[in-house]
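Q: What does the predicted 3D structure of ATP-dependent dethiobiotin synthetase BioD look like?
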Amino acid sequence: MKQNVYFVSGIDTDAGKSYATGFLAREWNKNGQRTITQKLIQTGNVGHSEDIDLHRRIMGIPFTKEDEEGLTMPEIFSYPASPHLASQLDNRPIDFDKIKHATEELSERYDSVLLEGAGGLMVPLTTELLTIDYIAQEKYPLIFVTSGKLGSINHTLLSLEAIQKRGIILDTVLYNLYPTVKDKTIQNDTMNFIQNWLKKYFPDTKFILVPEIKE
């Protein structure tokens, strides 16, 4: 597999990872970097991935050949819960070999793959494997999504410590301005705080604003 797969995770379930993933894919494609998105494990759906649907709308493209082949949504579970519970309730284990094969195929066909996880870094994929440990195991560089809501500084700094502890490469922090808030006091202060923290402790990490997206 080419070294062109980036894992997208965030501070929690409502960080806006899917919006940010679609936005970044759209921008990379605009710049001539052929990019596809993939959902590691989709829960709360049957037969399709609503996150992939959202990616395509934001990217402004129809479903791809790879979507139709199932490569971008290799594992889908019906119950809207963390993957370890969703797979238990569907009475079907997660097929990590199937996921890896799909990622490898996308990696060969495209310049870049944005692989979106479910929820935050510590979400359990199985009772023995956390999302963050899967990222470390596969040696994927990380694109991390945060936002300006109250509590984001705490969640972000805790995540950064965990990332550093596991030796994960933090490629980019995406600061999500979606959804729109009227009072931007906390949002602006949080943005400045996180930017300054990254400059001090993660100087090689890129910081990108994800604008309010109109689908």
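A (community wiki): The structure tokens above were generated from the sequence. The two ends are 33 Å apart (CA to CA). Strands lie at 5-10, 35-39, 42-43, 76-77, 112-120, 142-147, 170-176, 206-210.
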